[in-house]
Specification:
elongated, 74% helix, mainly alpha
């Protein structure tokens, strides 16, 4: 465990039990969401690589137009 996480847990331990429970539930939800994101990202590497290859080919073929965010 990192020092900062340990410090956060130590501080949380001084809070009322109801607030500790809310913090714990939020932390568990955040961890689950992060794990799902990492899994989805890991499973999409082949697809992302194909999209990157296509983008590079489109750039080299002159099929890409440089635009700003306000032009999308």
């Amino acid at each position: 465990m990192t020092a900062i996480l340990s410090r956060a847990f130590d501080k949380a331990a001084t809070l009322p039990k109801t607030l500790q429970k809310q913090i714990a539930m939020q932390l568990l939800e955040d961890i689950e969401a992060e794990l799902k994101w990492e899994q989805a990202f890991a499973q999409s590497q082949d697809q992302l690589a194909k999209l990157a290859d296509k983008a590079l080919k489109d750039i080299k073929a002159g099929r890409v137009k440089k635009m700003g965010f306000d032009e999308l």
